[in-house]
Amino acid sequence: MMDTPAALNDLDFMKALLDLVIPPSASGDLPGAGALGLSPAVAEALQADPLLGPPVEVGVQAVQEAALSQHAEGLAGMTPEAGAKVVEALLATHPLLIVGILRYLSPAYYQHARVLEGIGEPPRPPFPEGFDIEATDAELLEKLRARRRA
Amino acid sequence: MSNEPVGVLVIGAGASGAAFAWSIADAGMSVLCLDQGPWMKQRDYPSNGLDWEERGMGDFSTSPNVRGLPADYPVNEEDSDISPLMFNAVGGSTILWAAHFPRLTPKDFRMKSEDGVGEDWPIDYETLEPYFALNDRMMGVSGLEGDPAYPYHEPPLPPLPLGKSGNTLASGFEKLGWHWWPSDSAILSQEYEGREACINLGPCITGCAHGAKASTDITYWPVAQRKGVRVRANCRVREITVREDGMADGVLYYDEVGRLQEQKAEIVVLACNGIGTPRLLLNSKSKRHPDGLANSSGRVGKNLMFHPYAMITGIFEEPLQSRRGPMGCSFWSHEFYQTDRSREFVRGYSFEAIRGLGPVQTALWGMIHGLIPWGEDHHRSFARLYDHTATLLGIAEDLPEETNTVTLDAELTDAHGIPAPKVTYRLSENSRNMLAHAVERAKEALTAAGAVETVVDPLMRAAGWHLMGTARMGRNSTTSVVNERGQAHDVKNLFVVDGSVFVSAGAVNPTSTIQAFALYVADSIKKNIETLFDDA
Ligand SMILES: Cc1cc2nc3c(=O)[nH]c(=O)nc-3n(C[C@H](O)[C@H](O)[C@H](O)COP(=O)(O)OP(=O)(O)OC[C@H]3O[C@@H](n4cnc5c(N)ncnc54)[C@H](O)[C@@H]3O)c2cc1C
Ligand code: SF4
Asked: What is the C-alpha separation between B247 and B252, in angstroms, rounded?
């Protein structure tokens, strides 16, 4: 087992980072990913991934160090614009950073009840209620029927 | 557990094993089926929870290498352009399948006569017709009768609704004057045989929690068990054993607690799919069969065919209700199915219209294609895609090639130490040209349907759903493994009933044809039981 680097375990820093990756929507319908408290789940999943985990951990560490060099409170103390610049500047040397985070952040975020509501989906599993869908277009069906093989 | 000798031993409880066992039960012999996987429970399927999409990338992934469950064996796919996919349980890969249920067309059985490539099958569509129909009734198939691409047949249930995404895509085909037809689907549009109609959950390929999709654990197996067939789950067969005279006499298998057991049988039937079957034959070496069982032709594991897939997605301005409804079952098109010598390939492809992705998959797909960025623009980009996509899959007919193979890996083994399969597969130029053609035509259809943008995956890697050709049938024992009745040329009491026997792949999903063939083999054993081993 690899030791958890400080950055991935630093809740304030990770909250700020995840809020940069998926920020709150302008309308306020959708929360930022950090505010949803998803960072422990994302960190755990990354640490269990032998391919994406190590490069992302190194990248996250680099973001933390760069942010601290600019602001005493690090990423958590910076504006979103300034924070985004720090991350962008590191993407050339850490190309898997965002891809790796999103691999695990996307499932955690888009299956969260508040997010489902925000994108217009009922905050429930598909089963048992299911969904209604539009019937087959009657005109299209008539056209097919006319072409049927006897 | 009693290992009393049985009349018929079926290995593999998936699509073909279930159909075969149900039918052969009428022969009056004792029938036992062994499967390395467990019985599944609908309450455990991912669509019971909010994390349904995430579990589709984990314990319900379509790849055995990703799942790595006790029932799975690893497959070395390093030298393959396409990842082989399957599920190992009672019900086999039908636990996860999409249940799109086309039949091969009559011409598919005559590839060499029609187009001068590959080989003809030793049986034809007409011979299988009654078994297609019987299988449609057993599985519970919905569809619209009269598709001009096929001889007339009547699915037992009316077609599933196309939904807004299907209606939209179909309008594109109409505008272009191209063939399209609602899919035959092994999904219930109405209540049938005690099972309820589909309620449009969407994630059929992580198992149907509602039981509307036909997986053989809920279609064939309960009826087969009522006829007296026994199923032993969590039992992995290591090898088929042979008598002095070279006939099969049973199997060695690991039971659910890992003990090696011996099971004797008069007839052994392989239904382990196009990878599991050649693997088991190659693992069944003996003095008399040094290159593996039934392999005097050297064709076991050769001629592996997938259906190479291209995925072409249209982005629409209108919302399409696209993630709702059975994902893989909307409509098909055979517009480009037949050989046209003016094109740069022989044979052809079909289109399968599918429904859209859930939110998690939309986010990941958008990220991979550079359509959903991180940061400020994330939500606007997500909203542009989510519920606004509809997809066409181009399904190419792969030609059989001896260089595409299933062999035994020199090092990799499963949890019982049994050598694992290695898949070596390279996409041919013919298939590549075919997919390129499909991509351009799909773009036309999507644009005609109103798409404002199209996104292309020219060859889907994770699309090795259809496993065919690795124990092919034929009349000539030097070039094929089994005869037209699924009987091994070399071992008269050994039969193969899964997709391994396919001589050609057609350009449609194979399971309807696999199951019809399994029913046909069972019937031919029943009819010929007195003379079955005569020339042994
Ligand atoms: C995600 C997905 C979607 C699909 N969608 C479609 C579709 O829409 N339409 C279509 O026609 N087809 C589809 N398919 C393919 C379809 O599922 C297969 O064609 C069909 O299930 C093959 O039937 P089979 O009996 O040959 O093998 P399977 O159904 O794969 O069953 C083989 C069984 O053998 C068992 N087995 C293997 N080796 C051993 C051993 N050594 N000992 C004991 N047991 C063993 C396995 O555990 C398994 O249960 C899909 C497949 C997948 C994975
Ligand atoms: S869409 Fe229908 S078949 Fe598919 S999982 Fe849902 S209920 Fe089952």
From this structure: 15
